[in-house]
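Q: For a teaching session next week I want to show students how multiple molecules come together into a single three-dimensional assembly. I've collected the sequence lines for a complex. Could you give me the predicted structure tokens for the whole thing so I can convert them for display?
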Amino acid sequence: MLLNWDLISGAVVLGIFTGGIYALMASGLTLTFGVMDVINVAQGALVILGAYLSYAVEQHLHIDIFLSLLITMPAMFLIGMLLEVAFIRPLKHERTVFSILVTFAIALVIEGILGKIFTTNFVQLGANAWYVNQSFKIGGTYVGYIYLFGFVLAAVLLAGLYLLLYRTRFGFALRATVENRTAAQLIGIDVERVSAITFGIGVSLAAAGGMAFGATQTFDPGSHYDLISRLLAIIILGGMGSLAGAMIASIFMLVVFNVTSVVYSPTWGTVVFFVLLSVVLLVRPQGFLGRAEARRQ
Amino acid sequence: MTHLRPRRVPRLTLAVISLLALLALGWPSSSIFAAHHKGKKAVIKIGVSVSLTGDFSGDGQSILHGYQLWQSFVNHHGGLRGHKVKIIYKDDASSQTQVQTNYASLISNDHVTFTFGPFSSLLTVPASREAARFGYAFPEPAGGGPQVFQSESPLHNVFFVQPAPVVDDFASFAHWILSLPKGKRPKTAAYASEDDPFAHPQVDVARKILTKGHIKNVTPSAGSSHGVIIWPAESPDIQSVALKIAQTHAQVVVLGTTGLPEATGLIKAFIQQHYNPKALTEASGPDQGSLFSKAVGAKNTEGIIVPAGWWAGASTFENKAFVKAYLKKFHGGLGGISQDAAEAFSVGQVVAQAVNKDKVLFPASKANAALIKELHHGRFSSIQGPMKFNKLGEPEGKMFLVQWHHGRALPVYPKNLAVRKPEYPKRKWH
Amino acid sequence: MTAIKLALLGLLLAVAIVFPHLFGNATVTLVAFFALLYATMASAWNILAGYTGYYSLGHAAFFGIGGYAMAILCQDYTIQGGYGAFYLLPVCGLIAAAFAVPLGIITLRTRRHVFVVLTIAMLFIGQLLAFNLLGLTSGSNGMILPLPPWIGAAYNIPFYYTALALLVLTMSTSFWIRRSRFGLSLMAIRDDEDRAAGLGINTWLHKLIAFVVPAFFLGMVGATYFYFQGQIEPQFAFNPLDDLAMALMSFSGGLGTVLGPVLGGLLIEGAQQYFALTSGVGGNYLILYGALFLAVILLMPRGIIPTIAAIWSSYREKRNDQQASASPGEASNSEALGVAEGTSR
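A: Of course. Below is the structure for the complete assembly, covering every listed component.
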């Protein structure tokens, strides 16, 4: 078969834009791991929770879904702090492994609560907003404005996060904690406070990711199962704790999937991605931009 | 050192205690649920397992609504041969393990008289086998995949209460396309389906009929399964599938969707790609009434076709009562009524008619034997129209086509059931 | 092994053997069957995770491979439903173990969370292949397994005893490994792999064996499970939730102990089924189940068995102190014991 270059370039462009949305969802995950050694498998459920909050705001207050973030992100920030204080902080031994178990339980509870409040019907955000249906031409293909806006949102928030990390006192404390938790404590950094805020930031990023996810897909309370395995694969591939890595890995995943889909078959898209993931990790266990040595707890 | 040895015992002791505690848990579960039907007219209990959480929760909930509506309907009209009916339901969390436990428990603890089916072929097979072990009939609203009828159980207890076996859902669509006058008839078609035992065979049937009728299959052959693009159930991005279809510029698109997410995802992507096929049909999604029109935007539903066995305005048996009861209980418009609920309601109707004919309700074993026999031989009416089952429990009717016209899904084909003329070609996206 | 211990084990086994005769109810035996299967899975998983410190979230792949082995063997050799199919279990286990050898060689090149993710990838690749290799697995259509002839409540009984036999076999293996030189080497790897290698332990081979042995048992469990179900599909054969279940059960029971994962499996699977049966509306069941988990993990972070054992021994200690009959070595003795039993890590 002759390769259809329009199709391939279209797949690449779509992959890059969709990858931006995944990067937004994965950034909170990689951040909390970097700072706290916590693998938050509830991130998928929190993304869905964020999407439902935007949905509630849209339905009841009739506010545009992008503006709804002004309400949902602070709300989710508080939820995140609360979760950290109540459930993550008590974990003293084998933090990484136990965090997986605790956050899995949290994910189940969130799913249960969402099911009770919103029922289990599929919904979509901004179904009638102009940017969801209209598209613009780039190269040989069309891309919906929602993907562009989602990508811009991701870029803005991730840039903001970058500034927070590298231009503020809090960012300094946070990076010191990433570097060495104990040493940070010794030089007077309130590690627990840093952890709570970091977790809050991670969860509020999930709110933004959830909005973008919910505007490009229909979702229900059970959608988080599919999400979390992809998000985990992304942050491992990118290098755990690395924001730039998460961004690159998200785009890599979506581009690989889309190109395999259009050139050959969608059913092999995910296989190819996982095989490439395995190969990368065997050659470079720390992922694209991870540190060479996994830190000891 | 003498103290050392006894110290090692506690853990084992604990294990014993825990196991005994577990045994204790076993006691109440068999006694709490035990039936106490004394008194005048015993209540007839009917057991169902529905997915209220997990992958099938959306459809599972609608199925339950249908069953519950039938329960109030039948009780309002004197019950089953004078006995009040009570639907007992349990959540199976879309899990094959739990669905079996649920039916075992419904039969052996709740002592239900009949069992009705859950949602999806994936759960219907293990569930119907469990029911068969106890000699129970298994009329079910939503498990129509081929493997449901393959089970070698000599009991043949499965009855699929929809007008046609799922495989043939798209046959009506294909015949309609071929019935168009030659000048107007489309020339090219593209096919795609989720990798699903329920969706894929249907699309294949449409492809075979249309290809035979000289509608050219323009689906790219690389990586496709006999000219049908297959996408995985858990796909991170359905856009690429839409892109691949849009590039074929096919005039007819047949999509084997299994639910709202892919159905709306594909349509949105087509809109964004400015791809306007002349006819578009999806196996599932456009049948979900207002949920569908809310998700894709009401204007964009225009002209989309979905095979259906039921619609709100049908003049079928007891349909008016069903629609009225549904709207009273769940509000919303006519378009909001779920097809799942209608299918579940039909199960109750068919069983009620069979029981009224065979006249056996006690004991459960005899009632089920009689029900199985009756369902294999009789003809029944339902809100989905007449019902008749073959040896394997497959229905012997046909589906009709429903098309979205000005925000409502209305039957358009075949002629005897149509209330509107089919719209062709489909209008451009807004 | 002391006489008391033997007697208690015998009693446990006897209770398990007569259980279906005491509680003939189909629901009870069905839940007991599932609980035994999950206990076996947790016990097998613990050999790799608990003793060796490698947390695999992909071993459910071998459960699926065992299930497919059973389905394909039954189809190719037209095996009828009945007791005969149970003889295929060891074959299915061996097939799963054969797959585990190359997969173990690849994944064990990595450590810690990279290993975890590689095993997750292993599971998904397995699932996707099961979807895509139509000729072998029939893809998403799934395969039908032979229908056993037993009816009513009697159907569960042969499966119950098969599951019990698998559990006894897995536990004995686990127990034997725990007491053997081999097991000591595994635990040395768990505590410090580089040092273990420095001490002359062939870590590569030890880890590989610890990877393959659970695969063998999981293959047999998978074959039993899908023979019972009568049908196998990729998404249920290669189910990430099964991996999480094994991990949750092992952790809540007590990782690295022989009995902990078994108890965790029995209790959690039992509790899950019980909640789902009794709590009616869907969301409630998830909330209850999730909350119970949080409670167990946060209140008994070391797992049920080690926590209760610790409480018990501190109680005994106090009592002995009060009796003032303790020998001078008493306290240090019991502390040493806690470590030797591997309860604290």
